[in-house]
Structure formats: structure tokens, C-alpha cells
Amino acid sequence: MASLLGWPVNATLDTKLQFYYHFVSLIGNIETICSRIFSLRGEGVTNPTGATTRVFSKSTMKGRFAYRFRGFALYTAPNSPPVTLYLNGVGILEMDGTGNVSGHQSSAATPIAATWPVPGYPLECNYDVTGTYSVNSDGTGDAAVTLTPQPGENCAVENVFFRTVAIDEDRIWITSIKPTVAGNTVDEVCEGEAVRI
User: Which residues touch 13 (CB under 8 Å, ≥6 apart)?
Assistant: First the structure.
């Protein structure tokens, strides 16, 4: 007569223990395989403590994103006191999965609390965006982009370095670090967010 598990009722304890050992080993192998599959896709992976950890890479962030930003910059005109500018903008970025980024951006800058006219401001610009990005497995990363004014725009080329944090594969937080405008470093603080579209 056989038991529900398929071995004879008089099976030895050693036989039963061997079965349990092989069964537990099989389950462990399945968990390992699933973890590797999920990590390749950048999805949740359960670590030994039971917590879910996302694994990110350049390829998991591949795709098209809409982004927005806002912040402040300190502007100094020749023979004039410095003035604070309010900045904001929106754009579209395409990440290619290998570390390259391209797109376009529309942005504006306007003086705040200025007691004197700032020549050329408020200023609106449309840019083509090119650059590179990197992503660490924990979602932190960097991006270095060049903003090139589109034809007919009265704006300077800007080079901007960003620190980024991916919340998941569809959303990224962004903060700018010391950009250069026409080759001059600008005191600027901007923050924003990119969302997959």
C-alpha cells in the first residue's frame, strides 16, 4: 500500500529524509532561477531577509521619458549686481539602453526680486538634448547632457551634470549640479522628475 506521497507505507525514515532533501533543493533552485530572471528585467527580487530589492541597469531604464524641472540660478551681468533667476522647463528624453540620451527641451528663465532690468530676460529657449547616462544597481546614477539651442534661438549652449535616482523603471528624480553656460560655471539648483511615456 502506498502513502499519499507515493512511497510505501513501510518506507524507511532515511528514504523519507532523502525525498525531503531533494524536494527542498529543487525549490531552492527554482527560487534562484526566478531571482536571476527578475534581476535581468529590473523587477523586484526577494533577498534572504524577505525584503524586495529592485535591480537597475542602463538597459532597464531604456525608453522614452517626459520630464519637468524647476529651480534657481544666480545671474551676474557685467557691471551689475547679481540677480536670482527662476528656471523651469519640460522636455522629452530617449534613453537607448546603452548609456546614450537624446531629446529636446523647452525652458524659461525670469528674474525674481530684481530692482533693475536684466537685459535679455525673461528668456525662453528650445534646445536639442544629447548626452550620456549611467545607472547603478540601486537606482542611483548620473547624466551629463549638452543643451544646444535650436536654429533661430538666442540662447547659449549649456552643459549640465545631473544626479539621478530611479524610483522604479518608470520614474526618475533629477537634480542639477553646477552647469556651464557659454563656458562659464553657473550657481544653479534645479530639481525635477522624469516619467516613462
Answer: none
More confident: 42 or 133: 133
Residue 87 lies in a domain: yes
CATH code, domain with 181: 2.40.160
pTM of the model: 0.70
Residue 4 resides in a domain: no
What would the pLDDT profile of 50-81 be if each residue is shown by its tens digit?
Answer: 666 789 999 999 999 999 999 998 877 667 77
Structural domain includes residue 73: yes
**86 exposed, middle or buried (CB, 10 Å; 0-12, 13-18, 19+)?**
middle
168-191 pLDDT per residue, tens: 999 999 999 878 887 777 888 899
DSSP string, the chain: -B-TTSSBTT--HHHHHHHHHHHHHHHHHHHHHHHHHHHHHT-EEE-TTS-EEE---TTTT-EEEEEEEEEEEEE--TTS--EEEEEEEEEEEEE-SSSEEEEEEEEEEEEES-SS--TT-SEEEEEEEEEEEEE-TTSEEEEEEEEEEPTT-----EEEEEEEEEEETTEEEEEEEEEEETTEE-EEEEEEEEEE-
